[in-house]
Amino acid sequence: MLLRLSTLFSLCVALLGAPRNTWATVKLSGIVTNKVSDSISVSFSNNKLAYYPQDHFAHPDGQGRFTMEFAFPAGMFVQAEIKHGRHICEVMLQDGDSLVLQVDTKRFDSSIRFSGRGAAIQNFVAQHTLARGRINQYNTRLRNHVGLAPDAYVAAIEKEKKDEFDFTNAHRKGLPENFVSFWNAHFTYFNYFFLQQYPQMHEIFVKNRYTDTIPDANYAVIKELPVRFDDKLIHVPAYLLYLSGIFESKLKAAGYAQPLSTGNNATLFLDSVNSLAAQQMPPKSAEYFFAQSLYGRARNQPIERTRAQHADFKKRWPVSEYAEMVDKQVALAERLSPGQPAPDLDITMANGAHKKLSDLKGKVVYLSFWSAKVKQTVGLMRADKKIREVFVNKPVEFVYVCIDDDSAGAKGVLEQLKLEGNFVWTTGNWYAPEALAYGVQGLPAHYLIDTNGNFAVQNPPNAMQKTELIVAISKLY
User: What is the reported pTM?
Assistant: First the structure.
């Protein structure tokens, strides 16, 4: 599943951020030689539960000079990107920074120089980009080893971490000690996170397809995975990833494999995970764990369970930095729960007619959001063709909502693949009114709507679950 702009292996970006109730400022000015755009921007995420970027812009003058000042999360380091045209400069900002940037677009990466408060860290990050690549390329290096056997994988990613530590030690002069600790903790816990991911990712690599059937041997790496909590690391994004999966991994390695179904076994498994977290995690780590778990599962589990967990969360943490986002996510889950009315849409039907979703009452509607940029969603539409054949001359409609602003490009993909159907065309990408109305936070996103125009089930199957989807639709007419 695509969570907004991230993937499983770039979730560290999605989790970068800070408590939303404490803010300071950052100043950035400088000069861009040989400018290639009329703007320069700074982008970063402002929370830990999901990826909601903040973008700030300045417009260089004729000589390339610019200046900007913007509100910034206080009390921690936050990964950000400075963008000019297609050029990207990675930085690790902290509140109070007052930076002056000099860069020449003709040799962008090698010409980056910072001065001012916070410059030592940014110049180190620029050195790291030249020598070892951007921070998120570490994900790729770890992922490239998933084909190795368990012992070899552990050794390979430990070597990757050592190389990072060696680079930092060789270039740490002038760096604040708290930054070095933060930087090293990121790579340490990112290794732990990848150990959690290895059992399934290795099997996917071996079989060259998705699978949830994992041999016991793959879990050998989990024995190398320590249970190591520290509330002082709560602002290290890789530590947050580690928190989210540590006990799930440990239980699976102990033989308590979680079924994909939402039946009683899965519920008992998740209850066991939550129990261990409540018993063993320190206060701030536990607060994040339960907030992230509730936020991530609120819409996919029975609404009654979400309500109960929400009430428990508010009782345990009546004043939580995550309360606003959790409350909104639970409210969204309520709005999209079975029996609630599906928001109306303007549909271009396969025969060229234009209808509202509300005009289709009396029919079952299977609604899918897609993007030409997300191959999985296009593949699911192709798989839908066989399922649609089952419901020819039945009161069933398949509707596809495209969130690409480039509708012409998306239509070109459909023509190339000879995909036809009922389509909704939007503008605004993730912030399109249609995407917001349906609470789309990742792709693929599917909804099953009954003959009364109401949501029918909490978490409908997709075309890869052919039998389940056919049964689910058939029950509704």
Answer: 0.87
